[in-house]
Amino acid sequence: MLQWRLNMDSTNLNLSTTETDKRLHGIDVLRGIVMVLMALDHTRDYFGDIRLNPTNIDLTTPALFFTRWITHFCAPVFLFLAGMGAWLRRERGVTQAELSRYLLTRGMWLVLLELTLVTYTWLLTFSLGLLFFQIIAVIGLAMVLLSAVSFFPDRLVLGIGIALCLVPPLLDGVDPESLGWLGSLWPLIHGGQAALPPVFGFRIIAIYSCLPWIGIMAMGFGFAPLMKFPPEKRKRVLIALGIGTTALFVALRWTGSFGEPNAWGKQDSVLMTLVSFLNCTKYPASPLYLLMTLGPAWIVLGLLDRAAGRIGQMLATFGRAPLFYYVLHVLVIHLAARGANWITNGSFLSPMQAAMTGSFPTWFGGSLTTVYVSWILIVAALYLPCAWFARAKRCGRWRILSYL
Fold first, then answer.
1. Structurally, how many domains does the chain consist of?
2. Residue 126 resides in a domain
3. 3-state SS string over 49-75?
4. Separate counts of helices (H) and strands (E) for the chain
5. What is the pLDDT of residue 176?
6. pLDDT of 350-401, one tens digit each?
7. What is the C-alpha to C-alpha distance for residues 113 and 356, in angstroms, rounded to an integer?
8. How far from chain centre, in Å, is Cα 92?
9. What is the pLDDT of residues 3-40, one digit of tens each?
10. Interior CA angle at 377 toward 351 and 41, to 5°?
11. Residue 232 lies in domain
12. Of 102, 107, 78, which Cα lies nearest the Cα of 90?
């Protein structure tokens, strides 16, 4: 087992600005990669057939499954890097009190943004009486909690994060109806993909259960002191941890001993057996789902520590404008899908509205080829706006941009 000898006192750091920038560049590149992959999943939602469940082992195909599976890395990696970013923000000279206040206010802002602007970009209407509680709101709640626990020693924050990630299997047997008023909030705690009590006449659909995602952000915060290691040592530790975590996933998944309610089994082909093996539960996120995604991500982060070149710079540009990219990419994908439907079928149908109402026309749903071509074109179209925003944010002229 690797022995970590971390000096958790950030006042003793003697890193140059150049070294800090290089560490952040690797994080920005990895964040950019998962953001580009995220656009693939959302393009599939709008340009593919949303009625097809890629993770239904009896109905899916390898191509459809892996189109979905590769995007499983997005949410865990993004939450983890957000936690690391909070720690690095403190390292750059922000006091603990300032960091806590920033996390609290930005977290509450993200929850509000999810329930208003972000929901609107997904539906382009409020007439359905629906509000979505998705990843942006979960990030917000995680920041609110982190604003409190960030006062604790970094190792304790790391331990809290790991514990929260291990909780979901222990809650599987809980009957929400036995919890009284707390049971109505159970989708936020553990269930996920269910409606919360109405607010001002709107039904709030909770997609993500919060505990493991809050845990991942806390893990990222407690994990971040590793980034002050010398470059070569940092790379070795990240890759070793990634390989060890991935191996642990394979061992636990193979034996079926812990951490995943969805058992795997032998299928008609080797490829479909692999699909079954990798088909871990995201809603709510199981411990094996998190091992499966975070392990390879740590390996990639180690390899990206000195990422350079044109592609690396482009990916880092996306990674430096995450919230701006998120809101813009959903809006662009949605409008593009409506435009494509109007051109090809004479209908300005919103695929997400069709999904919410169950009113699918006979022509609904495109091929995976259409999804991939549309994804590439949309990501390319997002580059220049994100580059402009990243430059504006980096200049620091408008403090409000730190919340975007």
1. 1
2. yes
3. CCCCCCCCCCCCCHHHHHHHHHHHHHH
4. 16, 3
5. 82
6. 888 888 888 888 788 889 999 999 999 999 999 999 999 988 877 765 666 6
7. 21
8. 25
9. 332 333 333 333 333 445 555 788 999 999 999 999 99
10. 45
11. 10-380
12. 102
Are 78 and 294 in contact by the 8 Å Cβ rule? The answer is no
Question: What is d(CA 69, CA 75) in angstroms, rounded to the nearest whole number?
Answer: 12
Q: With contact defined as beta carbons under 8 Å apart, do 163 and 149 qualify? A: no
Alpha helices, H only, 196-321: 210-223, 231-255, 270-278, 287-303, 309-319
- Tell me how many degrees the CA angle 96-98-101 measures, rounded to the nearest 5: 110
In a domain, 253, yes or no: yes
Cβ atoms 134, 208 nearer than 8 A: yes
How far apart CA 151 and CA 174 sit, in angstroms, is 32
Locate 256 and state its tokens.
């079926």
Query: Which two tokens mark 304?
Result: 């990206």
The reply to whether 4 falls in a domain is no
Say if residues 316 and 36 touch (Cβ distance below 8 Å): no
CB 279, CB 57: distance < 8 Å: yes
In a domain, 58, yes or no: yes
Contact 378, 334 (CB under 8 A): no
Compute CA 101 distance to the chain's CA centroid, rounded to the nearest angstrom: 23
Closest CA to 314 of 323, 300, 325, 303: 325
Please write the tens of the pLDDT for every residue from 293-332.
999 999 999 998 666 678 888 999 999 999 999 999 999 9
Give the chain's length.
404
